[in-house]
Amino acid sequence: MKQGGQGLFNDFKMVDDRPVYVQLKDYVQDMIVKGHLLEHQKLPSTRELSKLLAVSRNTVLNAYAELEQDGIIYAVKGKGNFVGKVTTLKTSTIELDWKNRLNTATLLADEIDLVRQDIKWQKGMISFTSIAPEEKLFDVENFKRAFLTRMSLEGDIVLNYGYAKGYKPLIDYLLHYMEMKGVDISNKDILITNGFTEGLDILLSSIAKKSGRVLCENPTHHAALKLFRLHGLDIHGIDMRDDGIDMGQVEKTLAKMDYDFAYLIPSYHNPTGIVTSSEKRNAIFQLFSNFEIPIVEDGFNEELRYSSSHLAPLIAFSGSGNNIVYIGSFSKILFPGLRVGWILADKALIASLESMKRARTIHTSTLDQAVLYQYLQDGYFEKYLKKARSVYKKKYELARQASMQYIPFCKIRGDGGLHLFIELEEGIDARELLEKCYDKGVVFYPGDVFYTNGLGRNTFRLGFSRLSEEDIVRGIQIIGDTLRNDRRG
């Protein structure tokens, strides 16, 4: 039966001691009252229902006539019978306490969710909280061309299921891309992920927690800290120097206890913006190799170096060795909405991570991967990057100059990228400063969320990428004025 509701009539059962049309009328009325048939829903025709229930058509006609007389259904000439407006039977409800049914990992994720805790942005505010790229720079027209090109070539393929490992043309492109950065790709392979965060999560879900400890820079990327905590890892942070992690502290720490791995961000470190020097990168590789501790390298914003040439990533120092796992993404420079990242690592490790990826999310969107590949392959990325570097460099220099001019008693860190890290005098609370700036229409990220040990109360991060030049200067001036007035008070 194809008309509305016929399947619901299959459980109609007749008894011998009542007229059949009355039984049918009561049955239909009961279904309407209980909400099984909805207001204005079309009922089966008298011919269809009589055939379905093996009763005479007159029986159905009489039942429908009674229902119409009671105002339960109504007839539309030439169209049939429909359910009228009735008050449905209210069933009893229960209220579950879902908080008591959540596991500890979910409760922890809720507790450390920065988005949920953020001071709410309001229209007209100057917000330094984001380090995402500026939408106005997005190369939409060439992205459209890449989309149409790839769809015309293999639209039937990219709209179907893909492979857990990723879209092969994109994998091959990225392998060559990393080779151009000085990486020996022999015995290495790539797994495509839904951005950096999924890549790190898959890795953490796959490696054995022998010591249960991770070593990282302090402060460090908050998304990584969240995942480390959700995976139950004990986090040991090492202080930062102007050229990267404090190697003296690292050596002493490694001599004292074992670690499952280290997590490092050598380029445009989040949140400090520090670029680890080439000499220190080599020293890091040598030291961790001596202790046979793997390094997870976050290739954060490598493309946004404004001065001199690129520094080789840590994984380039490993040669044909396999002790470094590189997690990359174009999210902070290209199109974050695509959610395409990658893990470059030992072939055997990638094979195992591929199985974990397949078990969890099947695969990253093939369409997203294919269009990104076409965009990269057609040379649009290099042109876009040249323009983006020029715009962001100007904003970076403006933000740095304004911070030095207007914000008192501070140390400014940041060698490029899309943000600065401000360190105020000891005893000044950045969260209290934030509350006062909020009242004046300016918000930023307090720095303590990036620290592994609760420190950094006197620090904050300024993300300037999505702000106009005028708002950058005006916002920083308001922060500085607020701080000066607070000190006078």
TrEMBL record:
<keyword id="KW-0808">Transferase</keyword>
<comment type="similarity">
    <text>In the C-terminal section; belongs to the class-I pyridoxal-phosphate-dependent aminotransferase family.</text>
</comment>
<dbReference type="InterPro" id="IPR036388">
    <property type="entry name" value="WH-like_DNA-bd_sf"/>
</dbReference>
<keyword id="KW-0805">Transcription regulation</keyword>
<dbReference type="GO" id="GO:0030170">
    <property type="term" value="F:pyridoxal phosphate binding"/>
</dbReference>
<feature type="domain" description="HTH gntR-type">
    <location>
        <begin position="18"/>
        <end position="86"/>
    </location>
</feature>
<dbReference type="Pfam" id="PF00155">
    <property type="entry name" value="Aminotran_1_2"/>
</dbReference>
<protein>
    <submittedName>
        <fullName>GntR family transcriptional regulator</fullName>
    </submittedName>
</protein>
<keyword id="KW-0032">Aminotransferase</keyword>
<dbReference type="InterPro" id="IPR015422">
    <property type="entry name" value="PyrdxlP-dep_Trfase_small"/>
</dbReference>
<dbReference type="GO" id="GO:0008483">
    <property type="term" value="F:transaminase activity"/>
</dbReference>
<keyword id="KW-0663">Pyridoxal phosphate</keyword>
<dbReference type="InterPro" id="IPR015424">
    <property type="entry name" value="PyrdxlP-dep_Trfase"/>
</dbReference>
<dbReference type="InterPro" id="IPR004839">
    <property type="entry name" value="Aminotransferase_I/II_large"/>
</dbReference>
<dbReference type="InterPro" id="IPR000524">
    <property type="entry name" value="Tscrpt_reg_HTH_GntR"/>
</dbReference>
<dbReference type="InterPro" id="IPR051446">
    <property type="entry name" value="HTH_trans_reg/aminotransferase"/>
</dbReference>
<dbReference type="GO" id="GO:0003677">
    <property type="term" value="F:DNA binding"/>
</dbReference>
<dbReference type="Pfam" id="PF00392">
    <property type="entry name" value="GntR"/>
</dbReference>
<keyword id="KW-0238">DNA-binding</keyword>
<dbReference type="InterPro" id="IPR015421">
    <property type="entry name" value="PyrdxlP-dep_Trfase_major"/>
</dbReference>
<dbReference type="GO" id="GO:0003700">
    <property type="term" value="F:DNA-binding transcription factor activity"/>
</dbReference>
<keyword id="KW-0804">Transcription</keyword>
<dbReference type="InterPro" id="IPR036390">
    <property type="entry name" value="WH_DNA-bd_sf"/>
</dbReference>
